[in-house]
């Protein structure tokens, strides 16, 4: 008797969790196929530490073959889905193509950088969704400090020592907080820059940083950022980006060579190509995570508009907490469709959030209890180690070494600007210029 085939598209928090749960539930009774452009799961919350030299990239890259026994990995990017024929078309990393038939499909394609129609942004800004972008930013910031040290023109030195981050949400706040510490360490190694001010600007149209989180977390983060000299400008964004600076919505011009785009994310373009109903660009599903009219298709994570049963009329936020739990539920409900268990609806209350601000600082509210400083840092580190599906010891070892040894700061030159355009559906892969 042929084993049913379950195809999972994407190995982010939702797809990885679904694959891991299914492999345990199926016990070899199903052919589980995971389609993903890379052979690793990226623990995205620690990406700012890769960009600032605290962690090496492999620490937050968890091997899919090593941690998903019983799951067959197919390297490739989904290019189309034929729901009537029940197959997924994909392109492999070497330019080939293929098709995967399925009996059950889990769409967990995740999200990509959110673009806004602002002149010059697509050409001169860089996002922050994958390891190539993090490695590019680490090299780029290091290079700007080194070029500033050798520049004779004061205006050029100042422009190279000015770094603009757009978006004061979770990612942008962490990038600015870690980045300020990173450039402090870089400047210490360049005596010629010790009298040169290094500026970090954090911009957002909202009235505070971390606008989607508890105001107490926002207050803690704002205090730490300002203590580090970060210029936090709320109610402000970019009006135009140019090769030598940015024009802001308040009418000012900021000379800079660095524009980091962290304004948010949008569902993978694959969702729009399906021709199915969407909500805010996310695929409409019911409370069981199935697509209406297609009971063999499940969607979860950032790609899915999952009804939030704790807040009637709304959909769940695009967070790792929701994606992880939705992936597990999709696996359980697929097993139930084969008479193993009972279908369940998705219902989850947030357990709190953690924001790593670099050094001994963090902001956290586990179970609604607001924390700051070293205690919040300990909670944040513990949360990440528990949430990571692998590499825990190596990550903890890097943290300990970073606490007692100088930060390692060199340019590797592995990723150049053309390889990480802002407008890309695969930020996890560098583009070949």
Structural commentary:
Helices cover 31% and strands 24% of the residues. Strand 6 and strand 7 (87-91) form a beta hairpin. Helix 1 (13-26) packs parallel to helix 10 and helix 5 packs antiparallel against helix 6 (154-160). The longest helix has 20 residues, at 131-150. It has twelve helices and 26 strands. The chain is of the alpha/beta class and 433 residues long. The relative contact order is 0.17. The strands form eight sheets. A six-stranded mixed β-sheet has the order 5-2-1-9-22-21, covered by helices on one side. The protein has a four-stranded parallel β-sheet with strand order 13-12-11-17. A three-stranded antiparallel β-sheet has the order 6-7-8, with no helix packed on it. It starts with a strand and ends in a 29-residue tail after the last helix.
């Amino acid at each position: 008797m042929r084993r049913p085939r379950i195809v999972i598209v994407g190995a982010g928090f939702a797809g990885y969790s679904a694959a891991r749960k299914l492999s345990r539930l199926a016990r070899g009774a199903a052919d589980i196929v995971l389609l993903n452009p890379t052979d690793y799961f990226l623990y995205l919350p620690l990406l700012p530490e890769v960009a600032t030299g605290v962690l090496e990239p492999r620490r937050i890259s968890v091997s899919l073959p090593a941690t998903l026994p019983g799951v067959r990995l197919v390297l490739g990017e989904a290019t189309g889905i034929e729901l009537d024929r029940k197959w997924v078309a994909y392109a492999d990393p070497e330019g080939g193509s293929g098709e995967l038939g399925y009996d059950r499909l889990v769409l967990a394609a995740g999200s990509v950088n959110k673009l806004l129609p602002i002149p010059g942004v697509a050409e001169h800004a860089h996002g922050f969704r994958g390891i190539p972008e993090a490695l590019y930013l680490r090299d780029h910031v290091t290079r700007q400090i080194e070029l500033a040290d050798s520049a004779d023109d004061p205006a050029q030195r100042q422009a190279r020592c000015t770094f603009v981050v757009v978006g004061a949400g979770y990612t942008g706040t962490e990038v600015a907080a870690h980045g300020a510490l990173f450039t402090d360490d870089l400047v210490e190694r360049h005596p010629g820059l010790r009298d040169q001010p290094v500026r970090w600007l954090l911009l957002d149209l909202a009235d505070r940083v971390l606008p989607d989180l508890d105001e107490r977390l926002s207050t803690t983060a704002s205090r730490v950022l300002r203590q580090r000299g970060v210029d936090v400008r709320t109610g402000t964004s970019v009006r135009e980006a140019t090769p030598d600076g940015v024009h802001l919505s308040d009418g000012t011009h900021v000379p800079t060579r660095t524009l980091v785009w962290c304004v948010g994310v949008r569902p993978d373009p694959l969702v729009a190509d399906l021709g199915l109903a969407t909500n805010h660009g996310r695929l409409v599903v019911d409370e069981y995570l199935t697509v209406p009219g297609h009971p063999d298709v499940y969607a979860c994570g950032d790609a899915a508009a999952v009804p939030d049963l704790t807040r009637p009329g709304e959909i769940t936020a695009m967070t790792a907490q929701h994606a992880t739990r939705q992936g597990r539920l999709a696996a359980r409900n697929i097993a139930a469709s084969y008479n193993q268990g009972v279908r369940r609806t998705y219902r989850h209350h947030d357990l709190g959030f953690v924001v790593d601000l670099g050094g001994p600082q963090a902001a956290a509210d586990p179970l609604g209890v607001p924390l700051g400083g070293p205690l919040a840092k300990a909670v944040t580190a513990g949360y990440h180690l528990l949430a990571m599906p692998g590499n825990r010891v190596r990550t903890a070892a890097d943290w300990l070494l970073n606490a007692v040894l100088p930060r390692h700061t060199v340019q590797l030159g592995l990723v150049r600007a053309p390889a990480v355009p802002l407008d890309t559906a695969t930020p996890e892969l560098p583009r070949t210029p």
